[in-house]
Design goal:
Chain lengths: ~270, ~170
């Protein structure tokens, strides 16, 4: 016992180092999976306050520019309303599509240059935001909510190792998956493309709607470069993301208003 | 009292500078400067080694909280705090150079501080970028990020020291 005490006294520096370092590696390895990433909740009161203050200040500098963007988006939405009204008139079909709602939110912290990037927004549980909801910008898909506190929420950016979303080629309707390789925040990688599919530079890629996180047909990006197949039946292509993550400010949290029902249905399927 | 206030203020300023400004800096897609480690470098020579580790952990973990990471900055900073006594010994030739001196430009000179800080920054950044990627698969790009970011962080640290570090005791 005395020897042990002397041992600890003598090597306390190294022992403490090993203890702290293993704690860090433990924390780090726990954060390296999609669902565990949801557990690190930076959306706590302190960091939220600090980033909100900063965002309040820096927001003024780009106010004019973002006003223009919003006005443009407004105009597009008006067009869309007109289009939809026409459709409603011509067909009286109802409720055969999935219902999605939007919650407007402001990005108060966001990075693009790490391997795993997160978005912090100023809407939280009290505003109706929940984990696994999608985040879209006026230009396209942006991320997926993972952690929620009362007034803030964190989201995995598309620029994250574990962000993987189901996408679709608008022209052909063929499905593929989108990931990010960590190099440039302007480009994503489309994987699992069927080999027979002809891909041309500039092809539009949209969300497939299969995950029910994002509505179908939300813009993701356009094909920049097709990667020649190397013996595999599933090909890859580089995609220019339509969302400019470096100037993400106004976003919408989208969620399916029937989510609860769908979850129950899925659970029932598992139990049977 | 005065001394503790100085260290607390330095901690807060470096932290805010890091998370509010430098975490948004992106040059050529490879350079992410991290200068919060300057706090560890400037702790007095005669600080207890175990306290150095604890402060390293707390500082790193605070940066982690603000960066939505977990254990990443803490791990790299603890490693840096662990090697600091060795680096001090190697660069000064003594374990505790003159009890009253502090590791800074005014006491030790700019040339000494440059050597001391660039070694520590390199160790910190190497640990940080490898922990972030968590594999050796993207070795060339990781090495490029480490070297460019180290140079840029060191440049910022020397600028800060030459501006503020001269007349402080």
């Amino acid at each position: 016992m005395r020897n042990l005490v002397r041992f600890v006294q003598k090597y306390h520096f190294v022992l403490l180092f090993l203890l702290l370092e293993s704690l860090c590696v433990y924390l780090l390895s726990n954060s390296h999976s999609y669902h565990r990433a949801a557990l690190i909740n930076t959306s706590n009161a302190l960091t939220g306050e600090v980033y909100q203050t900063k965002s309040n200040i820096t927001g003024y500098f780009s106010l004019g520019f973002h006003n223009d963007l919003l006005a443009l988006e407004n105009a597009q939405l008006h067009d869309r309303i007109a289009e939809l009204e026409e459709m409603v008139d011509s067909t009286s079909r109802q409720s055969d599509h999935v219902h999605f709602r939007h919650i407007p939110a402001k990005v108060i912290s966001n990075t693009v240059h790490f391997r795993n990037n997160y978005i912090l927004i100023n809407k939280g549980r009290l505003d109706g935001v929940k984990a696994d909801m999608g985040i879209i910008s006026p230009d396209g898909v942006a991320g997926i909510v993972t952690g929620v506190s009362d007034h803030y929420a964190t989201a995995l950016s598309l620029l994250h190792r574990y962000a993987r979303i189901s996408v679709m080629f608008r022209k052909s309707g063929q499905l593929a998956n989108l990931t990010w390789t960590g190099e440039n925040y302007r480009y994503g990688l489309v994987e699992d493309i069927p080999a027979h599919l002809k891909i041309v530079e500039g092809d539009t890629v949209v969300t497939s709607g299969h995950s029910l996180i994002f509505p179908e047909g939300i813009m993701v990006g356009t094909i920049k470069e097709y990667i020649e197949p190397a013996g595999s039946s599933l090909n890859k292509a580089v995609l220019t993301l339509s969302t400019d993550f470096n100037m993400l400010r106004q976003v919408y949290v989208v969620f399916n208003s029937d989510q609860q029902e769908i979850d129950q249905l899925r659970k029932a399927n598992i139990h049977e | 009292m005065n001394k503790y206030f100085l260290y607390t203020a330095r901690f807060a300023l470096l932290l805010l500078f890091q998370v509010l400004i430098l975490n948004n800096v992106l040059i050529g897609g490879y350079v992410n400067p991290f200068i919060y480690v300057l706090f560890i470098m400037l702790l007095p020579f005669n600080i207890r080694p175990w306290l150095l580790l604890i402060i390293g952990f707390l500082l790193g973990y605070t940066v982690d909280i603000f960066s939505s990471t977990s254990g990443l900055h803490a791990g790299a900073t603890v490693l840096m705090a662990f090697v600091r006594p060795t680096i001090v010994r190697l660069t000064t030739g003594a374990r505790d150079p003159e009890g009253s001196l502090n590791p800074g430009i005014s006491d030790m000179g700019a040339r000494w501080f440059f050597t001391y800080s660039i070694v520590l920054v390199l160790i910190h950044h190497t640990a940080l970028f490898f922990l972030e990627v968590f594999s050796f698969t993207q070795l060339p790009s990781t090495l490029l990020r480490i070297s460019l970011s180290t140079l840029f962080s060191e440049l910022l640290i020397m600028m800060i020291m030459l501006f503020f570090g001269k007349n402080r005791r």
